[in-house]
Sequence to fold (271 residues):
Amino acid sequence: MEQELVSIIMPTYNATKHLGSSIESILNQTYTNWELLISDDASTNKQTREILNHYKNLDARIKVFFLPENLGPACTRNKSITEARGKYIAFCDSDDRWMPNKLEKQIAFMNKKDCCLSFTSYFECDENDNECGIIVAPKQITLSELKKDNKIGCLTAIYDATKHGKFLMPTIRKRQDWALFLNILKKSGTAYAIQEPLAYYRHRKDSVSTNKFSLIKYNIKVYKEIFGFSDLKATLYFLLIFMPSYLSKVVKNKFLYILYKLKQAPFSSIK
Fold:
């Protein structure tokens, strides 16, 4: 059976330390019919451009777009999505890594489920590649459940662009991935997950997502822009619905990671 094309979206900005390993994790995929679309958000260091040109010349499946000005992660990803030719749209940031069988397993899973959006569990690691946690994906998630808080890791998400067309990232500065998944589920209803971890998410000290307090206003903004909530309703929804759901998720994932480390067994045995 012929493999469908997967378009992988990767934004970069002054990414040097981990960019090579992220691209290598895609080159090492057992599923081979992919294109990697890298949009660089006007990086100010020449090393990023050198790394990108090296890989672009190394493999014809890698395409690089150098943006003339800094536009932010949403617009940068959207440049790649616009250029994408694949049936499937996948996401991998320039400091994250995929396991070699991620695409093979996930595309087979999507074909079996006939779903529009899928995602997986993933491991967390620090800047030195030391594993430090796990995020466990629910088996499936509906729009109403995703509305409570984002349980889909962007580095694991893949959507089928032939079912409801291409979806672009909403052009908000942060939390645009959550807003994207909400828009997809408005059309498709349910997303399905592989509970096996198939990627590594890297925590960086300078990462936006590391400072959760800085994201509060952007979480509230998602409710206002995607659902049309007033300032008061969005704030109350965040405090009364989002925060309890988010904290419960954090506690559950920490508990599951402790079990995983204690058992030292394949993840499937502790679901």
In short: The longest strand covers residues 190-202. Strands lie at 6-12, 34-40, 62-66, 88-91, 97-98, 117-125, 131-135, 140-142, 158-160, 190-202.
